[in-house]
């Protein structure tokens, strides 16, 4: 089939690579316009655009698909189907109607769970042990279209949202290809979603990423993992913001007060509303991520050092 691939970030690259190597023909790529990056704020292409140009595939970077000129460019490519992975732009009905098989989206949850912008992150935040990938036909509603296939996966005990998303992006590439193959050979079947079971996965915010140390240990750990790497769960130490980016297996240890820090030779332990958790990775203000134990050795922590929240700062001032 003739494919019009739509995607933008790193998570879309495994699927684009797989489709470029398949027996299908990628006749064009849709992606977000170049965006400013780095300290110099220079315009840079999206990861998908860079790969498409390297592969010699025509690239379109419209700000909107509502423009009739853009829609005519899509018609000129004569795609049979448009596979989508994290494109990040609304697709109007006029554009949805162009490929004869429609637009087929690889989504990183078991729909109808976690419709929206942050499905992998919300699954980790919720403390779930299982999530998965869904391939469905896009319609005007938010991730409401009929399902073509799903593939479950287990969430690791210490896996962060970023690690989960990277793994599902790799695994999802073959799931998407199998779905497209089924469309091509006429064996594909679509199943309506049970909309009564739908949940929403809103984009994460920095404000939401603040850690509440009074919550139970498993919830604090899930919060740190779900917010990693972006926006990054954060807390305060002596008034300076520190991002906590990962946890690891904690030893048997007596409970500590919420936020209280205790270090061993190999680990940094922190108290919560119940048990202690062990940090694996953190990023002090203005510095790159590092092993928590390495940070502790150079941080000259006070005897009763404690991570706090804004509210707790006010209470102890």
From TrEMBL:
InterPro entries: Fmt, Formyl_trans_C, Formyl_transf_N, Formyl_transf_N_sf, Formyl_transferase-like_C_sf, Met-tRNA-FMT_C, Met-tRNA-FMT_N. Keywords: Protein biosynthesis, Transferase. It catalyses: L-methionyl-tRNA(fMet) + (6R)-10-formyltetrahydrofolate = N-formyl-L-methionyl-tRNA(fMet) + (6S)-5,6,7,8-tetrahydrofolate + H(+). Residues 4-180 form the Formyl transferase N-terminal domain. It comes from the Bacteria. (6S)-5,6,7,8-tetrahydrofolate binds at residues 109-112. Residues 203-299 form the Formyl transferase C-terminal domain. Belongs to the Fmt family. Attaches a formyl group to the free amino group of methionyl-tRNA(fMet). The formyl group appears to play a dual role in the initiator identity of N-formylmethionyl-tRNA by promoting its recognition by IF2 and preventing the misappropriation of this tRNA by the elongation apparatus. This is Methionyl-tRNA formyltransferase. The lineage of its organism: Bacteria, Bacillati, Actinomycetota, Actinomycetes, Micrococcales.
């Amino acid at each position: 089939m003739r494919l019009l691939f739509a995607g933008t970030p790193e998570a879309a690259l495994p699927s684009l690579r797989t489709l470029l190597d398949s027996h299908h023909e990628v006749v064009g790529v849709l992606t977000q316009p170049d965006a400013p990056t780095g300290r110099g704020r220079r315009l840079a292409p999206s990861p998908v655009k860079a790969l498409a140009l390297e592969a010699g595939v025509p690239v379109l970077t419209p700000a909107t698909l509502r423009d009739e000129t853009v829609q005519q460019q899509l018609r000129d490519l004569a795609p049979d189907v448009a596979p989508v992975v994290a494109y990040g732009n609304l697709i109007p009905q006029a554009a949805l109607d162009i490929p004869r098989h429609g637009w087929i989206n690889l989504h990183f949850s078991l729909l109808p769970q976690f419709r929206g912008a942050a499905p992998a992150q919300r699954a980790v935040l919720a403390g779930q042990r299982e999530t998965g990938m869904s391939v469905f036909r896009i319609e005007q509603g938010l991730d409401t279209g009929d399902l073509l296939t799903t593939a479950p996966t287990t969430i690791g005990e210490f896996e962060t949202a970023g690690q989960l998303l990277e793994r599902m992006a790799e695994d999802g590439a073959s799931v998407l290809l199998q779905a497209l193959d089924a469309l091509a050979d006429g064996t594909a079947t679509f199943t309506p979603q049970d909309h009564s079971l739908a949940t929403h996965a809103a984009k994460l915010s920095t404000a939401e990423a603040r850690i509440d140390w009074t919550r139970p240990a498993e919830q604090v750990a899930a919060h740190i993992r779900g917010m990693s790497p972006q926006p990054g769960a954060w807390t305060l130490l002596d008034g300076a913001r520190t991002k906590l980016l990962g946890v690891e297996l904690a030893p048997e240890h007596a409970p500590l007060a919420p936020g209280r820090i205790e270090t061993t030779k190999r680990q940094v332990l922190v108290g919560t509303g119940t048990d202690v958790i062990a940090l694996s990775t953190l990023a002090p203000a203005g510095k790159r991520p590092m092993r928590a134990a390495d940070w502790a050795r150079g941080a000259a922590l006070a005897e009763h050092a404690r991570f706090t929240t804004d509210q707790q700062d006010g209470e102890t001032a």
